[in-house]
Structure formats: C-alpha cells, structure tokens
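TA notes, week 10

Several of you asked for a full example with nothing omitted. So below is the full record: structure tokens for the whole chain, then the designed sequence directly under it. When grading your own attempts, check the secondary structure regions first.
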C-alpha cells in the first residue's frame, strides 16, 4: 500500500480506530474501544484491492467498556458498586424463577 492508501484505509472507519504511522509505514489499531465490528474496514480493504488485509472480529467472552465518573469516587469503586447492584438483581431473579418452578 502507498502512504495515501494507508491514510484512506485508516480513515474508512470513523472515530480514529486505525492510524497510519507514516514514519514506520504501518497501520496500527489506535483506539480498539471505538471499533463497532461493522465490517467496514474489511470491506474497504477489499474494495481497495487488498482482501485479507485485516480481520476484525470481537473476542468471545470479552468486551471493552469505559467508566466515567465525577471524580467523587474512583472508577473502580463505581464498577464494584454497579456489580453489587447487578448481583442483587440477578439473585432476586433467580429466586423468583425458582419459586415459579416450584409452583
């Protein structure tokens, strides 16, 4: 690929997911958390004559999420508290399903 083609391909996915490092003459994943796995980068590479340039697929069992807070509590505490609430709700759901199964 030429530098211009690398720039074009990197710009094909919104959000700055991919970047062209002109000094290294390479493409990099600059912001993996922004990629939506829509297949656009794969289709763009094929349309440019470079099929198989990239494979983009979610990693089974993994996801990336971002936690933003106000600064009053550390992000890790916010996540722990949210997981505790979710755990309580899931336990309540399990109890309700168990009770329904017993009826």
């Amino acid at each position: 690929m030429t530098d211009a083609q690398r720039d074009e391909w990197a710009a094909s996915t919104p959000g700055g997911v991919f970047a062209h490092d002109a000094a290294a003459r390479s493409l990099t994943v600059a912001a993996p958390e922004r990629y939506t796995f829509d297949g656009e980068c794969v289709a763009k590479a094929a349309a440019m004559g470079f099929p198989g340039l990239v494979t983009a697929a979610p990693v089974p069992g993994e996801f990336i999420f971002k936690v933003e807070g106000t600064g009053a509590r550390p992000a890790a505490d916010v996540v722990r508290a949210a997981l505790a609430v979710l755990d309580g709700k899931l336990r309540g759901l399990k109890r309700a399903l168990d009770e329904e199964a017993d009826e």
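The radius of gyration is 21 Å. Use that as a sanity check on your answer.
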